[in-house]
Amino acid sequence: MKKALITGVTGQDGSYLAELLLEKGYEVHGIKRRASSFNTQRVDHIYQSPQAQCTQDGSNARFKLHYGDLTDTSNLTRIMSEVQPDEVYNLGAQSHVAVSFESPEYTADVDGLGTLRLLEAIRFLGLEKKTRFYQASTSELFGLVQEIPQKETTPFYPRSPYAAAKMYAYWITVNYRESYGMYACNGILFNHESPRRGETFVTRKITRGMANIAQGLEPCLYLGNMDALRDWGHAKDYVRMQWMMLQQEVAEDFVIATGKQISVREFVRMSAAEAGMEVEFSGEGVDEIATVTKVTDSEKAPAISVGDIIVKVDPRYFRPAEVETLLGYPAKARERLGWVPEITVEEMCAEMVESDLDIARRHALLKQHGHSVSVAVE
Ligand code: NDP
Ligand code: GDR
């Protein structure tokens, strides 16, 4: 039985990857952080407590969690030594670009040095020939883009502390491959989303915002730069590729993307439509707004009237340096590995809005019955 170790297992990608590897028969070990409240919601459905394992059929006993942190060398080395994994997927990160401007040093420590700590643990324990290593690299490396579309050979130009830290992680992964013959590779992944996406990334913020507004839980959604263009795919397609990258004869780096881009504004329009509202945009820059021109589904959007302003711009969400446009060219992944994304951005958006509408309906019902419902917004 193959063993995998996933950092960031409690995150969006970690949860989908753990499901995939369990389906493939792996023993899966995940590193979770100690937090003051539960942070394992995305993997609770595949986890079985040690007590339950003793009394039930033990079918999910192949999924194990360890407390740990990418800033803690001795902890990582001990877990690596205990697990002796065949594959390590380094998905753990302070992954929010805007937050990295607020916490640049922490981001460098976790996202940059954290990667080095794992590679060094593998080397220190003499696992270089056994353990394959996947690094969650990012299209943010292209930042101020030097070429359109972006492929494996496109020069990097990071535009945030997050991207600069990930650039160190990218090169140290390449360096350990070249220096020590390790099977270590980078997946340069463009944005990928799902109903499990963190609520403060723009797609989820929008789908959740549209659902809450439609159900009367919030009056208006505040966004930053609506001109930004992204190449958005579905996380399920992208974790499949993470696994494929570790099954090759030779370790190589791959760009993973859909090859199509849309703006944040277009994603708003699409999400509003899925939530039963047609909108039009007017005004420019900080004065831009989205107004409802038609209610197409009054069951989904019972709280909405024509003329309601449901999106405004708040400059607080502008970034000190912005990545305006990203568009990937995933030909190498298609040709070498036969990987093609199966879920379109439209399908993904519909799935996210449906999921957020389900949550919003439940909250609206609670509110109707006099319970207080707080809708956290950031
Ligand atoms: P998430 O933000 O959903 O998950 C990040 C994970 O890292 C969480 O499990 C989080 O734990 C964990 N983590 C954060 N800080 C630490 C730390 N100090 N030590 C250990 N673990 C930590 O990210 P995604 O799942 O979306 O992304 C996975 C990886 O892929 C990240 O490295 C991200 O930077 C990268 N990436 C993501 C893309 C995307 O579009 N989703 C595109 C390209 C790259 P907790 O749950 O406790 O917060
Ligand atoms: P990104 O994702 O920075 O590309 O990083 P995010 O969804 O945060 O932003 C995408 C674009 O939308 C613009 N934007 C807003 N963003 C947020 N979060 N909130 C807003 O209100 C808002 N309004 C407009 C942003 O300015 C940006 O241009 C994600 C993360 O998953 C990284 O970890 C990963 O490496 C990259 O994708 C690829």
UniProtKB/TrEMBL annotation:
SUPFAM superfamilies: NAD(P)-binding Rossmann-fold domains. Residues 5-352 form the NAD(P)-binding domain. GO terms for molecular function: GDP-mannose 4,6-dehydratase activity. It catalyses: GDP-alpha-D-mannose = GDP-4-dehydro-alpha-D-rhamnose + H2O. Pfam families: GDP_Man_Dehyd. Keywords: Lyase, NADP. Its cofactor is NADP(+). Belongs to the NAD(P)-dependent epimerase/dehydratase family. GDP-mannose 4,6-dehydratase subfamily. HAMAP family: GDP_Man_dehydratase. Catalyzes the conversion of GDP-D-mannose to GDP-4-dehydro-6-deoxy-D-mannose. This is GDP-mannose 4,6-dehydratase.
